[in-house]
Amino acid sequence: KEVETQTKLANVVVLATGGTIAGAGASAANSATYQAAKVGVEQLIAGIPELSKLANVRGEQVMQIASESITNDNLLQLGRRVAELADSKDVDGIVITHGTDTLEETAYFLNLVEKTDKPIIVVGSMRPGTAMSADGMLNLYNAVAVASSKDARGKGVLVTMNDEIQSGRDVSKMINIKTEAFKSAWGPLGMVVEGKSYWFRLPAKRHTMDSEFDIKNIKSLPDVEIAYSYGNVSDTAYKALAQSGAKAIIHAGTGNGSVSSRVVPALQELRKEGVQIIRSSHVNAGGFVLRNAEQPDDKYDWVVAHDLNPQKARILAMVALTKTNDSKELQRMFWEY
Ligand SMILES: NC(=O)C[C@H](N)C(=O)O
């Protein structure tokens, strides 16, 4: 009996959404020129016979898209399916195969709204499976290994790329041509080597079980848009986004989320009209925006995104706005999550 429980494999469901990990190119030399979202989940799983030693793995095709085309409705659909599976007694862990372009957004979204301590791992690849030295197979093997491990429970949504275990909150795609594409300004949580996880640190921010957000209570996501800042920027994009109905605008700012003097008056005006203004930074290695530095946020009633990059700030703003439109509450959430 004891031997039986020791060797009992975890049940892991692979939810496939498309991306390069399901991509196919014309020749093995095509590492960057290929079509994403071509290969079905059954074929992905069948391509790695070693998975059967890690877990009882079954697949579900939730969608088949390149991740740059993901919509808020897609996010909600995926989030609801993850929640159903997490509630199921015969599921121990969930793996989501995903395109890498918006992987960090989906991972952060799930990290905020899934009320479970079961492992949820989001994984992609930088090269299609048809390419020489394709990375998807090992990334997926590692994802299933982490999803089936008890040690991964309660650590929030995780990402396994390039042998590293990253926090879904922190991780970001930093370069688009290397397999070493995903980094976090604060470092990975661990490593996965030959199917075994090695942990070094824990996420400090609220997530999953400890989150005040629940996918089951979210009917729709409000419109939150991003405007990019640079030298000689005008206020045209900000005004247009507000006019098209944005409830919040993420300012993808320079440096410490700084705002051009050409844009400040428009943002003050938009805030008076009820649009939330959230200052983030688009610096490459990870921004760190502080309140009332660069701009008087208290005076203007603006919010800062702290270390969240613009695309992650959009995710938190959408989820937060389903609960409150109070800027002080929004700011609290931006510190806590
Ligand atoms: N490497 C990738 O997965 C890129 C692809 N465009 C996607 O996000 O679906």
From TrEMBL:
Residues 223-334 form the Asparaginase/glutaminase C-terminal domain. Residues 11-199 form the L-asparaginase N-terminal domain. Pfam families: Asparaginase (PF00710), Asparaginase_C (PF17763). InterPro entries: AsnASE_II, Asp/glu_Ase-like_sf, Asparaginase/glutaminase-like, Asparaginase/glutaminase_AS1, Asparaginase/glutaminase_AS2, Asparaginase_C, L-asparaginase_C, L-asparaginase_N. The active site is at residues 20, 100. The keyword Signal applies. Keywords: Hydrolase, Signal. It comes from the Bacteria. This is Asparaginase. It comes from Pseudomonas rustica.
